[in-house]
């Protein structure tokens, strides 16, 4: 299923550039394009150099929420907006009065349009996160020759994903940086370690697995492969690479000993995500509601203002638990370091 034991994760928001994916491919890894936060038109442009290269690659899409916020979550969102006004004032930013309705194409992350694009112009692999694609969509993609992958965080999610007919699973542990892929109520890390989680999922389903979450070196990768995964997926490990599109502020923070821990927070987007603990995480995690993508839209202007001001304390500094092992330099060197030891 996976042509390499090393996969470079799709990191949305500009981190996964075409240059990063292409360089990772040339170094012997399997690479994804990040479809999240992109319109269908922008995704098509992003995919053009990958298609032209002719190598095997994947595209990741966010599965959108298909129901309105509950009354309680909507009330919590309104309270959180009020809380953010003070922070926005310090940054010289303005909190939007209202987020797009959940049926707005922006809130749906242009799901219909991007799925139509990938059915009209197929790619080798499509992966989904934040939920399960309908079985009909999975079958339609497979009918075009596309291999389909679902992201899961527990045995229960793995069993549900297998029922949709996908070809493989990415098993993500809670040690992963950025957003959790969890989609079932109460779903979380699923096991104390990624090795244990992969072993549990391996015993429950017969699909090929890739392990993800807190893999900082080849020793950790070897343990995950030995537990039953065909490949490991790297995110934070390549975030500081030359080809990564992450902000310089973010890359520098990962190497700064002033940041000594990570935490899972909903403060930036309304969805659990692991980040370096900074001022924004400490100040706003308690009040942040379960409201994605609404919170993402509310904090967007604040994050942009923080980046413009060079304010790392107000940025979403996504990081997995092995962030201190993330190396700078060409991504080819990082990939080679893993492959040579594997």
UniProtKB/TrEMBL annotation:
Record-given protein name: Propionate 3-nitronate monooxygenase
Oxidoreductase recorded as keyword: yes
Family under the similarity heading: Belongs to the nitronate monooxygenase family. NMO class I subfamily.
Pfam families linked: NMO (PF03060)
Known catalytic reactions: 3 propionate 3-nitronate + 3 O2 + H2O = 3 3-oxopropanoate + 2 nitrate + nitrite + H2O2 + 3 H(+)
Cofactor(s) recorded in Swiss-Prot or TrEMBL: FMN
UniProt keyword terms in alphabetical order: Detoxification, Dioxygenase, Flavoprotein, FMN, Monooxygenase, Oxidoreductase
Classification lineage: Bacteria, Bacillati, Actinomycetota, Actinomycetes, Micrococcales
One BP term from GO: response to toxic substance
One Gene Ontology term of the molecular function aspect: nitronate monooxygenase activity
PANTHER family: NITRONATE MONOOXYGENASE-RELATED
Record flagged with keyword Flavoprotein: yes
């Amino acid at each position: 299923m996976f042509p390499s034991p090393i996969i470079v994760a799709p990191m949305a928001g500009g981190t996964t550039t075409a240059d990063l994916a292409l360089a990772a491919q040339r170094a012997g890894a399997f690479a994804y394009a990040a479809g999240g936060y992109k319109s269908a038109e922008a995704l098509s442009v992003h995919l053009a150099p990958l298609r032209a290269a002719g190598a095997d690659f994947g595209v990741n899409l966010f599965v959108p929420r298909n129901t309105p916020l509950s009354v309680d979550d909507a009330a919590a969102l309104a309270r959180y907006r009020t809380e953010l006004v003070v922070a926005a004032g310090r940054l010289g930013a303005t909190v939007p009065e209202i987020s797009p309705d959940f049926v707005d194409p922006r809130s749906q992350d242009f799901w219909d349009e991007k799925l139509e694009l990938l059915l009209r112009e197929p790619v080798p692999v499509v992966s989904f996160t934040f939920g399960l694609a309908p079985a009909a969509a999975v079958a339609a993609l497979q009918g075009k020759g596309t291999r389909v992958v679902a992201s899961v965080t527990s045995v229960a999610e793995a069993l549900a994903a297998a029922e949709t007919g996908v070809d493989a699973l990415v098993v993500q542990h809670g040690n992963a940086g950025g957003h959790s892929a969890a989609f079932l109520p109460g779903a979380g890390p699923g096991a104390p370690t990624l090795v244990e989680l992969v072993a549990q999922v391996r015993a429950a389903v017969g699909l090929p697995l890739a392990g993800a979450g807190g893999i900082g070196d080849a020793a950790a990768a070897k343990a995950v492969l030995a537990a039953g995964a065909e490949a490991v997926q790297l995110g934070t490990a390549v975030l500081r690479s030359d080809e990564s599109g992450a902000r310089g502020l973010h890359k520098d923070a990962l190497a700064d000993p002033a940041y000594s821990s990570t935490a899972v927070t909903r403060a930036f987007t309304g969805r659990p995500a692991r980040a370096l603990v900074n001022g924004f995480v400490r100040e706003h995690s308690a009040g942040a509601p379960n409201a994605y993508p609404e919170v993402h839209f509310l904090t967007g202007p604040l994050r942009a203002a923080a980046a413009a001001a060079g304010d790392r304390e107000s940025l979403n500094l996504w990081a997995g638990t092995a962030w201190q092992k993330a190396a700078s330099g060409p991504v080819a060197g990082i990939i080679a370091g893993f492959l040579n030891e594997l």
